[in-house]
């Protein structure tokens, strides 16, 4: 992983199924848009942003590997640049999805490996505890994404305790993502909590993520993306 990656990578923006694309200014400020496609009902609404000025990628967030099939992937490929796998438990899930993507790409007449693969990792206990390396699992794997809220919910606790402490499972998960990403030489994204909507808080969280080894952050809020763009501009001056 390049030591300069964290200085240049833009954030990811997650959108709910059916949610409108943000303004061009926001599209310019993100590495990729991640649109929810975890249910069959949400998949027909997927649409690539098109040939606008923005250079961001368009990714579909899909269900766990065991709940994904070639037919479902084939229905998505024409409109997306890649997929984000939810609840990744380890390399076996990546390899299983990689095989399905190869079949779907071949059926659609697309070049093999054309579809990027990112994975939400350490959001379930299995991946936090997995002893298996992620290095060399798939050439299309480009990033791991950590969501502290998802892991906390999966483990029956809160993202932050009542006393303001970070639960041990969240600390362990965060470390697992950074270490596995470093080992595999891929990017590591840290999902921002939804509540900070002021520049100082967002900037503090972003800086904390970078200082803890993450390449960039992810967000579910276009407002946070605007604030991040301002923070990045200040840091680069």
Overview of the molecule:
Helix content is 37%, strand content 18%. With 237 residues, the protein is an alpha/beta fold. The protein has one domain: Phosphoenolpyruvate-binding domains (TIM Barrel). An eight-stranded parallel β-barrel has the order 1-2-3-4-5-6-7-8, surrounded by four helices. Helix 8 links the parallel strand 7 (187-191) and strand 8. The longest helix has 17 residues, at 91-107. The mean pLDDT is 90. This is Aldolase.
Q: What is the topological layout?
A:
Blueprint: H1 5-8, E1 12-15, H2 24-28, E2 32-36, E3 57-62, H3 70-74, E4 82-88, H4 91-107, E5 116-121, H5 125-129, E6 141-146, H6 148-154, H7 168-184, E7 187-191, H8 199-211, E8 216-219, H9 222-236
Parallel strand pairs: 1-2, 1-8, 2-3, 3-4, 4-5, 5-6, 6-7, 7-8
CATH architecture: Alpha-Beta Barrel
Topology order in helix (H) and strand (E) letters = HEHEEHEHEHEHHEHEH
Q: Which structural class do the helices and strands define?
A: alpha/beta
Q: What is the overall number of helices? A: 9
CATH class: Alpha Beta
Largest sheet: 8 strands, parallel, barrel
**Low-confidence sequence ranges:** none
Strand content: 15-25%
User: Reading side by side through the largest sheet, how are the strands ordered?
Assistant: 1-2-3-4-5-6-7-8
Mean pLDDT: 90
Q: Name the CATH homologous superfamily.
A: Phosphoenolpyruvate-binding domains
The number of distinct β-strands equals 8
Label the overall shape: globular
CATH topology: TIM Barrel
* Tally of domains: 1
Q: In angstroms, what is the radius of gyration?
A: 17 Å
* Spatial separation of the terminal alpha carbons: 24 Å
Domain HpcH/HpaI aldolase/citrate lyase: 61-216
Keywords: Metal-binding
Protein name: Aldolase
GO molecular function: catalytic activity; metal ion binding
């Amino acid at each position: 992983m390049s030591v300069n990656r964290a200085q240049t990578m833009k954030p990811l923006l997650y959108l709910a199924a059916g949610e409108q694309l943000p303004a061009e200014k926001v599209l310019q400020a993100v590495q990729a848009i991640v649109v929810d496609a975890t249910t069959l009902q949400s998949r027909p609404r997927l649409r690539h942003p098109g040939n606008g000025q923005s250079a961001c990628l368009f990714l579909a967030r899909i269900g766990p590997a065991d709940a994904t099939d070639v037919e479902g992937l084939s229905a998505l490929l024409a409109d997306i640049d890649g997929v984000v796998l939810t609840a990744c438990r380890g390399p076996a899930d990546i390899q299983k999805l990689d095989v399905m993507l190869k079949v779907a790409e071949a059926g659609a007449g697309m070049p093999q490996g054309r579809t990027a693969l990112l994975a939400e990792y350490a959001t379930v206990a299995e991946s936090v505890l997995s002893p298996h390396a992620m290095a060399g699992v798939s050439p299309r794997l480009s990033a791991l994404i950590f969501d502290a809220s998802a892991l906390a919910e999966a483990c029956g606790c809160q993202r932050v305790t009542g006393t303001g402490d970070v639960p041990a499972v969240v600390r362990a998960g965060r470390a697992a993502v950074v270490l596995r990403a470093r080992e595999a030489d891929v990017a590591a994204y840290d999902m921002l909590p939804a509540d900070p909507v002021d520049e100082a808080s967002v900037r503090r969280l972003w800086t904390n993520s970078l200082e803890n080894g993450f390449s960039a952050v992810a967000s579910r809020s276009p407002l946070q993306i605007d604030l991040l763009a301002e923070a990045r501009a200040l840091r680069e001056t």
